[in-house]
Amino acid sequence: MNGETVMACIDAACAALKEHTDEIASLDQQIGDGDHIFNLLRGMEALLAVRAEIAAQPLGPALEIAASKVLSTVGGSSGPLFFSLLNGMAKASANNAMDVAGFARIFAAGVEAVGQRGKTGVGSKTMMDVLIPVAQRFEQLAAENAVSRTVLDTLPRVAEENMLATRDMLATKGRASFLGERSRGHIDPGARSSQIMIASVCARLAQHNGQGA
Ligand code: ADP
Ligand code: MG
């Protein structure tokens, strides 16, 4: 896992988000202000513009460059939150092995950083309702010595189940919380975009593994 793999993951996430632009825009129009997908796509374009710089680095520095680009380009609540995810992962990259257990810890560190930034955990109808269960299952799979194929098959399912579960939740954080009870009945846009990115990154990495990379 290095800067080239990071860029391959960014390409996959960007393509998947573009495919779901209208859907995510509409989710954020229902319980937010409609800008979520456009914030993310702006960040993605900025990352694609520094492809060579990211691809030339090892994992930690590549994630660090990506984090700072996201912070300077993605607006809304999600900019600083995705910065925290990438920056938390970048910091943890230095102290962890490049194996399933190491990646589980690196991802969990990123998710913990989002929690500190956004001051929330599960149950408030945000991206955390996807990120936390995925990080937890990742660490559980690592503790069971699961092979990467199992991890890459399982995590997208965990992400999807938990994304769908945000539909019935009451939003207590972010813009959607202003709606109170009216926030129920709509999937959280940040949960949906996070789930889409997790699914596309896992699919891309599974393809990489299949090629023996
Ligand atoms: P804004 O709400 O400022 O317009 P975005 O539209 O970019 O920002 O992002 C909205 C998403 O951010 C929500 O769908 C939710 O998933 C996530 N979010 C909002 N507040 C928080 C928070 N405190 N912690 C984690 N995620 C949050
Ligand atoms: Mg918004």
UniProtKB/TrEMBL annotation:
Domain of life of the native organism: Bacteria
A Pfam family matched in the record: Dak2
DhaL domain location: 4-203
InterPro entries (UniProt xref): DhaK_L_YcgS, DhaL_dom, DhaL_dom_sf, Dihydroxyacetone_Kinase
Entry annotated with the keyword Kinase: yes
Keyword Methyltransferase belongs to the record: no
Gene Ontology molecular function, alphabetical: transferase activity
Keyword field: Kinase, Transferase
SMART domains: Dak2
EC number: 2.7.1.-
Coiled-coil annotated residue ranges, if any: none
Protein name as annotated: Dihydroxyacetone kinase-like protein
Source organism (scientific name): Paraburkholderia caledonica
Species classification: Bacteria, Pseudomonadati, Pseudomonadota, Betaproteobacteria, Burkholderiales
